[in-house]
Batch of 3 targets.
Target 1
Amino acid sequence: MSYSILTDTSANLPAPVCEEWALVRVPFAYILDGREYTCMETEIFDDRDYYGKLRSGVRATTSMVAQETYYEAMTRCAAQGDVLYIGMSSGISGAYGASEAAAARVREEIPSVRIETFDTRGASLGEGLLVLEAARMRKAGASMDEVLAMLRNYRSRMQQVFTVDDLMHLQRGGRVSRVTAMVGSVLQIKPILESDEQGRIIVTGKVRGRKKAIRHLADALREKINPNEKQLIGIAHADCREDADTLEALIRETCPDAQFLTVKYEPVTGAHVGPGALALFFLGKDTWR
């Protein structure tokens, strides 16, 4: 293997997938009931219990990953050769900045090794799908420069569209304004959210009712995807698997042969989007950022 691919648990990739593609992950942490946890195995993560606690009023908090955590992971990988870190959006977290600082330290200490960092401007499978494509290309023999070119192209096409049950979770983390969150809660409006050019979360639409919100996600894909391009479509849900299945069925009306990766929202990102969040990730036919 000519270079390591390092990512973080925000990429929302199941542990067996990471093992299959030889991906190294930096764990993000969350605090619940006064205890700190990490979650490396989201496929067996008890989302019903976790999001049930959030629904009952228990608050989960998160903190930025320490530069030292990145430094240690990059140093271990650098012992094997070059390193490519593919990380969570700098538009919603300072973690990517910490990774850049760590990479600079490793470059100085081990100048013979190439260390590259890449900001996906995404989270959950908006990050994870790019990581998987990078791993696929590496296995096929692509150089790091070829992978970086793909990442820049895919980042410009990655669509991240989602809805939440309660905007207050995003407001607490500073992802949306307090006024936006309060209006949505009072009027029982289901917001449609996307990421902007900097990977920040913005409200792009409002609908009344959960069913309309799910339909809106499917309509967004129908409008923006190239139906003739084979790709892996990502769905992430925060304890609403039935809604995720409904969304997949709606998408199959447009893309009957599509492949899907459906995951539970890992608990760190899930603490910000809240229970009931449902997200869709795919490559649009046009570049926009």
Target 2
Amino acid sequence: MAENARYVSGERIKVEVEKTLLSPRPETAFLFLSTGLLPSGSVPPDCTAAFRGVPPEPGARWRAFCRAGGFDITTLPIERKLRAAVLHPEREAVKTLALKADRLMALGFRGPALGAAQETLARHILTYPEDNTPEALTRLAVRLLPPGEA
């Protein structure tokens, strides 16, 4: 019956996938890929590992699903906020930085340079969450300053 999926709206599929992703067993969302209900992607060898430590929030779960299964989020009608959470996780991570904007400004960051520094630090903590301390981020931020401004 998978061939009949073409008659189901993208909005409906998105709702069902998201309900599954937010359920206690989010790994079952990979069934949407293996049955052909979603147009692209693949099922990873260990589906449960994809969601280990991922909070039950739409952005985080969609991001984990897309990353693990290679699913292109742009193939579904997704709200701008959710699309940004999946495609640009550093923007969401800026809110969790242990080094706030006022401290970066005290170091000398202003305007666009301040936003760029925040995004760079956020990308860093996505890979190295243990560095999300004021001390570690300050050391990293100082390296981002142009020579002579540190």
Target 3
Amino acid sequence: MNRKYRKTIIAGNWKMNKTLSETKAFADEIKPQLGKHKWCEVVLCVPFVNIPAAVRMFKDTRVAIGAENVHFENSGAFTGEVTAEMLKEVGVKYVIIGHSERREYYGETDFTVNKKIKAALAAGLHPIVCVGESLEQRELGVTAELINYQVKCALAGLDATQMRKVVIAYEPLWAIGTGKTATAEQANEVCEIIRSIIRREFGARVARAVTIQYGGSMNAKNAAELLAQPDVDGGLIGGAALKVPDFLQIIAAANQE
């Protein structure tokens, strides 16, 4: 982390987990223990149906509520989808875009990711944009080339002002839901590659200010080591974000001196 230039963000991605009652129980348990977490911003990206309640439950805290997906159109015949304006109106601040599960199961592409980013920014939301390679791609030695392609496609057409509002999450596909985790050095290496791409496209000042998270099975045990790396500015947390004690430990790791 480098707090001198950029914000540390710990974001929980609940995926398709927690009912409304379970969301309330989570809020009741975590709120008294949150403290001020002065060095990082905490985000909870929850299922669509839980968003309005989560916004109310955390309104007296510094926890921001995010969504797990968004459509790129402003309206239309897209059954089951929601727009960026809809999310903004109910109090959402962040939205995850291009998560590997969306790419794998629902046909999300680098080009739809780009359109969703632009829609989110137009509505005043902060996109958390996911990029990452498969195990096969890493073993072939094409990680850098793939990340370069994904990042450039995702950010095409953005200007420097817009880029400052974007968060990038490096999520190696081989480390999501598998229990495997990139070493701290591996995570930092790719986050550094991402920053170098942003530097080339938007300039050094913008690249220095952009938050780049690690999103591959960060947990209570490895968070401190990962977050100690200079180019890892936070985490996009999956399973550990569903458990209050684990999530609190990760937040504490982000507040390390």
